[in-house]
Amino acid sequence: MYLYKPGSDMFEKDLNLLEKVLYPKDPNYKISGQDWIKEVKDNVRSRFPIEVEQEMIRKEVESFKTSLVTSAKTAKSVTPILMAVKNGITEMVEKILENYLVAMYDVDEKKKNIVLLAVEHKQPHVFELLLSLKKKGTITNSVFCEVDNDGNSALHLAATKADFIWPVPGAASQMQWDIKWYEYVKKSIQPRFLLLRNKHGNTPEEVFTKTHEKLVTMGGKWLTNTSNACSVVAGLFVTATFTMSTTVPDGVKEDKHKQASKMFAGSSFVSFCTSLIAVVMFLAILTSGYRERDFRWTLLAKLLVGLTAFYVSIASTLISFSTGHFFVFENQLNSTASSLYVVICFLLITLFALAQLPLYFHLLWATLKKVPQPKYRLIPRWP
What we know:
Layout: H1 9-22, H2 36-46, H3 50-74, H4 80-86, H5 90-99, H6 114-120, H7 124-136, H8 154-159, H9 170-188, H10 204-211, H11 213-246, H12 258-286, H13 298-328, H14 335-368
Helix pairs in contact: 1-3, 4-5, 4-6, 9-11, 11-12, 11-13, 12-13, 13-14
């Protein structure tokens, strides 16, 4: 049964489609030897039987459709969009896809496309852009379902340990951000990929466990060293603040020093309680099993609580000491000495803040951040 004859509308549409496939509007995609298409069309119209003609047209159209996609995938191992994805240049990725949508099929020599590379190189901004384009229908869902030559899906690559250092302090925070990245990609990928095995027979969860064994050990060691150092100092503060809170300096009970006595009693109590909380938190970290899933929140939360209590204990101890010192040397300090005394205390607090607070706030930011921030790398200059 023949659907149409030479010269019919459908016949002409197929030939025109063939010509469009061969001659895209973009001059960058022109093929050498393009004049032969006219001869092919004329010969098809005049010489071939209708069934051969139809079959040839169909095969030519399908062949050139496939060749365009295949050439986009295999012509180059490194294309502009792949470089932009690797380095997290979201604007360039967006512009390339706007003008050359076929670039979404580009792959490198390991058959990794833009989604796999964005996940492998931990580029959340690029990954979010690709997700938004998928929701709009600009790129196909199949791009998110590809696997590389080793059978690794996007979730397998997300489970692989990062080949660079996240911009967060300590091995424990590095582990935490690797977990966050894996969970972020996991929420964006179809559930069927959770049980997909690569060519080595590993699921994404198994890949994560195997590639992070060393980092778990390093993170546990970092937490142990930090907790040991802080717990020793916090223990000394517990002893000192307990003694200080149970010792009443001369003159505290006098009415004229009522406000100062309240400050001394309150700061001593706060210092003792917070230093005790710090010791408990650090001991809780030391006695934990350093399980993989605990790095997601539990261990770092305990560390932050312990450090917060420890810093409050130091500040309140300084206030309590200054108040007690006021009672002892009240009648012996003139105005100049008192001013110098205040300046020294202020300098101590400032020095402590400059030395400790940047690291503390960095840890706090790293723990509360839901999605890891991208780490930009310099793009190499190609000759």
